[in-house]
Amino acid sequence: MKKRKTVSAHKQKKTVSKHPLTRLYCLLCDRGFTMIELLVALSIVAIMILLLALGQGLQLGRGEDAQRKSDFAKLKIAFEDYYNDHKCYPPPQILQQCNTTALAPYLGRVPCDPVSKQPYAYITDGSCRWYALFTTLDDTSDPDITTLGCKPTCGVTNLPYNYIQTNGAMPVGDIVNLIDGNTNLLPTPPPTVIPGDYACDPRGQCNVYDDPIGHGCKATFVDAQTCQSACANPANWCTR
């Protein structure tokens, strides 16, 4: 009768998989953890990481919104000083000269949007009575948007802006109606978007957008590779 071969404990250990997840699972099993408990723990950690990332993105957006509001406050002072000297508000062309000294001595440099680096939308009535500055805030829950009547937008057809500043000469709604009824007052033509789902986000990364115009995208692309190549140019970035 043949004797059964016994396998030493040393040789048995060699049969255990060397995959790190398997080794981790075996270690946790030895300490009383089941696979279900391990998966639950990993899921909780993943959710916490996701929430942290979303929170950081929201705080970053709010910081950029604060910069936009600060720019508008500085422009308001500069515009009134300009009006006192010239009895009229600056012509729209001045604000198109983004990041220049075109408004000196009333303002050191003409501010640009902190994300897109493009000029702010600026409209005047041509009779020196009122002006309107427009931008889009990233934080759509900002209470100022609702207060201004700009939720989801300020109401100007084909312009996605949700924040407006005026000189207060007329109610915001009346100014919006005047702009909407006169295409000659529009700051720029409505954004043109070629067909596609991919667009460059404000960080210069290619992402999928279901409403590119609403996010201020200058262009969209039919494939991710072309999109990512185009994202090297900040002029292609969406505003939000």
TrEMBL record:
Pfam families in alphabetical order: N_methyl
UniProt xrefs under Gene3D superfamilies: Glycoprotein, Type 4 Pilin
Database matches in InterPro entries: N_methyl_site, Pilin-like
Keywords, alphabetical: Membrane, Transmembrane, Transmembrane helix
Segments traversing the membrane: 33-54
Signal peptide (residue range): none
Coiled-coil intervals: none
Protein's name in the database: Type II secretion system protein GspG C-terminal domain-containing protein
Source species: Candidatus Cerribacteria bacterium 'Amazon FNV 2010 28 9'
